[in-house]
């Protein structure tokens, strides 16, 4: 099994331009993907469901790769002073798998 996937390039200037455009009129949120939601988006709901039964370890491994990349993106954003509000959606995509990927402090 192989899934072609490259993380989106980190582009802090896009966030800064939006932040400057909005100014004091609102809050610009830095969006982060969710590992399970992103994988489901690439392989589809049916494959995600099948893999969760037939290829559970491979699915967990792929989710870990996504989670590591998302964590790196969040760290890069913080290192570049982006935020302070982050948006994160999708954790309801795979009931029973979510406990595998707890956020570390």
Strand and helix layout:
Layout: H1 12-22, E1 30-32, H2 35-43, H3 45-54, H4 56-79, E2 86-88
Parallel strand pairs: 1-2
Helix pairs in contact: 2-3, 2-4, 3-4
Can you give a write-up of this model?
With 105 residues, this protein is mainly α. It has a domain of 71 residues. It is built from four helices and two strands. It has a two-stranded parallel ribbon. Helix 2 packs across helix 3, helix 2 packs across helix 4 and helix 3 packs across helix 4. It is elongated and about 50 Å long. The chain starts with 11 loop residues before the first helix and ends in a 17-residue tail after the last strand. The C terminus is likely disordered.
What's a concise summary of this model?
The chain has 105 residues and is mainly alpha-helical.
Please compute the radius of gyration using only Cα atoms. Answer: 16 Å
In what range is the share of β-strand residues? 5-15%
Low-pLDDT ranges: 101-105
Helical segment tally?
A: 4
- The multimeric state of the shown protein is single chain
In spatial order, strands of the major sheet run 1-2
Q: Name the overall outline.
A: elongated
| SSE sequence, one letter per element | HEHHHE
For this entry, give a set of tags.
105 residues; mainly alpha; two-stranded parallel sheet
């Amino acid at each position: 099994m192989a899934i072609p996937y490259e993380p989106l390039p980190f582009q802090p200037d896009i966030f800064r331009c939006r932040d400057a455009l909005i100014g004091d009129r609102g809050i610009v949120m830095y969006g982060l993907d969710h590992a399970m939601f992103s994988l489901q988006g690439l392989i589809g709901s049916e494959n995600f469901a099948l893999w969760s039964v037939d290829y559970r370890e491979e699915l967990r491994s792929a989710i870990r790769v996504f989670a590591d990349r998302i964590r790196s993106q969040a760290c890069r954003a913080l290192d570049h002073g982006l935020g302070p509000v982050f948006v994160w959606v999708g954790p309801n995509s795979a009931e029973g798998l979510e406990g595998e990927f707890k956020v570390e402090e």
